[in-house]
Amino acid sequence: MTTQERIERSYEPGAYAAQARGWIETNLTDALRTDRATQEASLAEKIAFEAAQHEAGLVGITWPVEYGGHGLGLREHLEANREIGLSPMPNAVNSIGKELAGPIIMTVGRDDQKRDLLPKILKMENIWCQGFSEPGAGSDLVALRTRAEKTADGWKVNGQKIWTSGASKSQYCLLLARTGSADDRHKGLMLFAVPMESPGIDVREIVSIDGARSFCEVFFNNVMVAEENMLGAPDEGWAAASRVLSIERATNRMYRSWRFESEIDHLVAACRSDNRTYQILKGYSAEIAQARIAVENLKGHVETMVADLLNGQQIGPRGSLPKLYWSEAHQRWAQMAYEVTTRFPLDGGQALTDARARFETIYLASRAETIYAGTTEIQLDIISKRILNLKKAA
Ligand SMILES: Cc1cc2nc3c(=O)[nH]c(=O)nc-3n(C[C@H](O)[C@H](O)[C@H](O)COP(=O)(O)OP(=O)(O)OC[C@H]3O[C@@H](n4cnc5c(N)ncnc54)[C@H](O)[C@@H]3O)c2cc1C
């Protein structure tokens, strides 16, 4: 289906949002809501909820129908994401499958790979993790040393990945490995779809600051990967990964600006529930105003990029602008919001208990926001060199 055909299938403006809102209101249970201090939903419940979101048309919106998607346009994607952001829905378990592996497979995969792998991502049959970073290769990703060596039986992989989010619950790893010499840098890199149950893969969880066990180290010891699990042509790994990463940096978690907005609304509403707390909040009015301005700026970034993509324009390095702006502004907001909640009276009632729990989680998670998907310094480097065309000082 061409982009034009997808646009023609589009809904009336606002209709998709109304449908999404209705579905969320009916299906988001208390256990799943992130604005309640109650018991968190289990992994199985979150997986089922995510599969149901796909059925309801909130996920895979722009993916072609033949690969399990809904064959619609970015406008519907944006409408649904606004509603997702405005609700206290949990973050996706399979965001790497849907926002990174899926688009890469769509771009460089063979048709049989697309037909096999893509629907299983949307149905939550296959959760994916991203095996890019290594102990010696983060910002400088092309320093990676995990090797894939060609043998008569396929590719033999040896090496170590780190900070692999969700590896211990994943069925597949999107692996970036080196097939050439380490001196080749951008050349000789290849992407593979590696089944996590392959013999020789050892996953070790790392406990993070919030007590979560999402991060992992993944060791590959003589892991055999079938020829047919190569994604794209040899040497195409870097080009494919960077092309998709720039689009994804712009459109990933498109709901973020609206989630940010709903967090501000939540804090204000919680403080209003208790007069003592409301007096505390008044001391932060300048910071709240700054956060609201940041939200409006971010919405502008996202809406402009969606309009540009719909007009067939490339996003390229501009994807770094919303990533940098959101992560810095949201981290400042999260620190302030957490500070406010630490001043809540302990006898203030349930609304304050819920807000205290939520903003502590948000604050801890925000510490990583200026690191993952490329650190602040790396975004500044991209913006200065590739958008502003600034030269290095002599
Ligand atoms: C929550 C979270 C989830 C993640 N999930 C995944 C995942 O699923 N899969 C995966 O592969 N990786 C993942 N990562 C890893 C992430 O991509 C890396 O942490 C990131 O790229 C930075 O690399 P590094 O940690 O090696 O730090 P380094 O690259 O060593 O950077 C250390 C510091 O030096 C600065 N720096 C580095 N180079 C330059 C430069 N050229 N100019 C100026 N400053 C520089 C950086 O900005 C940073 O402040 C995750 C990270 C986090 C925090």
TrEMBL record:
Residues 235-388 form the Acyl-CoA dehydrogenase/oxidase C-terminal domain. Residues 129-223 form the Acyl-CoA oxidase/dehydrogenase middle domain. The keyword Cytoplasm does not apply. InterPro entries: Acyl-CoA_Oxase/DH_mid-dom, Acyl-CoA_Oxase/DH_mid-dom_sf, AcylCo_DH-like_C, AcylCo_DH/oxidase_C, AcylCoA_DH/ox_N, AcylCoA_DH/ox_N_sf, AcylCoA_DH/oxidase_NM_dom_sf, Mycobact_Acyl-CoA_DH. Its cofactor is FAD. Keywords: FAD, Flavoprotein, Oxidoreductase. It comes from the Bacteria. Residues 17-125 form the Acyl-CoA dehydrogenase/oxidase N-terminal domain. One of its GO terms (cellular component) is plasma membrane. GO terms for molecular function: flavin adenine dinucleotide binding; oxidoreductase activity, acting on the CH-CH group of donors. Belongs to the acyl-CoA dehydrogenase family. PANTHER family: ACYL-COA DEHYDROGENASE, ACYL-COA DEHYDROGENASE FADE29. This is Alkylation response protein AidB-like acyl-CoA dehydrogenase. It comes from Sagittula marina.
